[in-house]
């Protein structure tokens, strides 16, 4: 009898722990780097064309996100990036800079640094 109670308790704990994992009931939306298409007013940003910016990394310090994604405010959607959310955001910034004609460098000593 004690063994059955122990197994039952273990199953309850296991179901509680695994029930809180994964998608959490929201609809999963995969955000892909290739599908990001920045729309910027290139004419209004013409003064930056040909300039160079040192842009090495993006840090995600938001408490309500993970390395892979975040949930919508209403918890209905789970946005996931691959390979990671920080890499996705970094690539989107670089793509936007390039769209308006700004060169990006990962390190300040990269070729072309003025």
Write up what this structure looks like.
The chain has 114 residues and is α/β, with parallel strands linked by helices. The chain has a domain at 28-105. It is built from two helices and five strands. It has helices spanning 2-19, 85-99, and strands at 27-31, 52-54, 69-71, 77-81, 103-105. The strands form two sheets. The chain has a three-stranded mixed beta sheet, with no helix packed on it. Strands 2-5 form a two-stranded parallel ribbon. Strand 3 and strand 4 form a beta hairpin. It is elongated and about 45 Å long. Mean pLDDT is 77; it is low at 5-23.
Largest sheet: 3 strands, mixed
The coarse overall form would be: elongated
Major sheet strand order: 1-4-3
Number of strands: 5
Radius of gyration: 22 Å
Provide the helix percentage: 25-40%
Beta-strand percentage range = 15-25%
**Poorly predicted parts:** 5-23
State mean pLDDT (0 to 100 scale). 77
**Helix and strand composition category:** alpha/beta
Count of DSSP-assigned helices: 2
State the end-to-end CA separation: 78 Å
Reading the helices and strands in chain order gives: HEEEEHE
């Amino acid at each position: 009898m004690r063994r059955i109670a122990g197994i039952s308790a273990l199953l309850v704990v296991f179901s509680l722990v695994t029930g809180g994992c994964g998608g959490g009931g929201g609809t999963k939306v995969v955000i892909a780097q290739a599908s990001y298409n920045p729309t910027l007013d290139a004419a209004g940003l013409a003064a930056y064309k040909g300039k160079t910016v040192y842009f090495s990394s993006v840090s995600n310090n938001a408490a309500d996100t993970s390395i892979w994604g975040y949930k919508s405010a209403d918890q209905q959607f789970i946005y996931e990036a691959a390979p990671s959310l920080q890499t996705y955001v970094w690539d989107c910034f670089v793509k936007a800079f390039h769209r308006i004609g700004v060169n990006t460098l990962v390190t300040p000593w990269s070729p072309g640094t003025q």
